[in-house]
Amino acid sequence: MLPDYYEFYNPVKINAGNEALETIPYELKQMNVSRPIIITDKGITNAGLLKVLIDSFDDSELVIGVVFDETPPDSSLKTVNKIAKLYTEYNCDSIIALGGGSPMDTAKGVNIIISEKDDDLRKFMGADRLKTPQKPFIAIPTTSGTGSEVTLVAVIYDEVNNVKMPFTSNRLLPNIAIVDPRMTLSLPARITAATGMDALTHAVEAYTCLQKNPMSDAYAFAAIKLVSENLLEVVKNGDNKQARFAMANASTMAGIAFSNSMVGAVHAIGHACGAIAHVHHGNAMAILLPYVMKFNMDMLENLYAELLLPIAGEEIFAETKTGEKAMKTIEIILIMNHSLNKLCGMPVKLSDAGVKKEQFEQIAKTAINDGAMLPNPKELNEKDVIDILTEAF
Ligand code: NAD
Q1: From start to end of 142-210, where are the E strands?
Q2: Which residue, 93, 273, 379, 383, could crosslink 279 as a Cys pair with Cβ 3.0–4.6 Å?
Q3: Each residue of 21-46: pLDDT tens digit?
């Protein structure tokens, strides 16, 4: 059924394909800026990607103000403030994030501090708290998972209170997303697997949550097809540029989908597992997705049945009886997880991803207060979360 009313907003210009990176100097000029800060992490520098970005400035008169490459996983409040100081100290006028969700979300946090002229990021946590247009911002994803290059979301770890803080505002949307397949070729198999399952989870939750709409459905459906056709291939053959590009597109499309419909309980519980047990976001998504789908089954059977087509292809969709299609979708996701585990050791149980049983209660308490719970079609209490954690353990 179509919603009575919905909004869909994606103003991000997407420059995609080989040498998309080389368009950055032109794009900066178009935005009347000339001195960006680059925010990245050590893994990206070591993989040689920072050099490729810096080299793309060679023939331009633009200057890189400063490079920060010490972003930690999930970022942190302290890091955001440290980078904001560098931005001012080096007279920067724009931001380039190069990396996975951690550098991209860090950059969004830095942009808030600079643009709102306030060094307490916590004040801006939640929905629509930003009052000021943000500085020009280019995001270059190097993982195919979070979709942060096209989302109105930032998630930043508050190391004092042990929670992952969500920020949502249209002002957080980057101006430009650079989707260049060269940027994901060096991604190790295990991170490729986990981040790919993150993209799949975005699409599945976008397609099934309370704020779904026909536009987000279209992006989600297409993203699921691309993930199911390409994820195992990129984990097996990381240098398959075509499949890498397909996964990069899937991730960006899934990002557009969930940025316009939101997510659900997989994300709420996954954020809590990240904050309390430091499980990598993508791993948490992969492990929890089938179990949360089982929990939601009575409310979402028809939608899960529809998703069998993009996830399994025409033949399996046609030969599966109507009443069995939804369960088949879940079964295929479980099989994908196990195949990824065999190929690269991606954990398929929470116990293998660092979660301890003693943490269940704290994870459950944190999860039910996470904003991502609100659009989940079926309400969850602490016991429901503990049951899901137990199944996924
Ligand atoms: P990440 O950014 O933490 O990166 C994981 C590791 O992969 C790092 O060590 C990094 O150096 C390495 N890496 C990344 N790209 C590489 C490449 N091409 N070659 C070699 N190494 C590479 O991982 P992520 O999964 O992309 O991001 C996770 C974060 O994103 C979490 O904090 C999560 O909460 C957040 N997130 C944000 C959104 C959003 O819309 N803003 C959505 C989902 C997740």
Answers
A1: 153-158, 163-168, 176-179
A2: 273
A3: 999 999 999 999 999 999 999 999 99
Instruction: Determine which residue's CA is closest to atom 43 belonging to ligand 1.
Output: 146
Domain boundary among 183, 212, 234: 183
59: domain CATH number is: 3.40.50.1970
Q: Is the CB of 191 under 6 A from ligand 1?
A: yes
Residue 164 pLDDT > 90:
no
Span from the CA of 131 to the centroid of ligand 1 (angstroms) = 28
Give the number of domains in the chain. 2
Q: How far apart are CA 155 and CA 118, in angstroms?
A: 18
Answer whether 0.85 is exceeded by the pTM: yes
The β-bridge relationship of strands 153-158 and 163-168 is: antiparallel
Distance 182 CA to ligand 1 centre (A): 16
> How far is 141 from 148, CA to CA, in rounded Å?
8
Q: Is 195 in the pocket of ligand 1 (CB under 6 A)?
A: yes
Ligand 1 centroid to residue 241 C-alpha, Å: 20
